[in-house]
Amino acid sequence: MIAGLTTLQILRDHQEAYEMLDRKTFHVCDELLMLFQKKGLPIRINRAGSMFTFFFTPEEVFDFTSAGRSDTEMFARYFRGMLANGINLAPSQFEAAFLSFAHTADDVEKTLDACAQTLKTL
Q1: Taken in order 49, 53, 59, 62, is the CA torsion positive or negative?
Q2: Angle of helix 72-84 relative to helix 105-121, nearest 10 degrees?
Q3: 31, 34, 71, 118: which has the fewest C-beta neighbours closer than 10 Å?
C-alpha cells in the first residue's frame, strides 16, 4: 500500500513525466507505422496515451466489428516473428501494448529493430 501511495505522490508531483511518456509512445507508434508502410503492409495503430494496438487492415478501426475485419493470421505471424526477435507482445491482436516509465531508449530501439527484422519475413 505504501509503495502504491508513494508512486501516486511521485506522479502527482511530476506531471511532466506523463508528457514524456506520451512523446515516447507517439515516437514508437510513428516509427512502427513507417516500417509497415515501407513494407507495403496495411496497418492501423490506435493509441491512447501510452497504450496502443495495431491492426493489420487498411480500414479505420473504431469498434469490435471493424477490428474483426483485420488480418489476424498476419498478426499471428508478426507476433511469432517478434517473439523470435526477442520482443514479447500480447498474443492477441485485440490486446493492447503499453510503454511504461521503465522503458528506455535502448528498449525502444530494440523493439524497432525487431520489427524491421520481423517484417523482412512477412
Answers
A1: negative
A2: 120
A3: 34
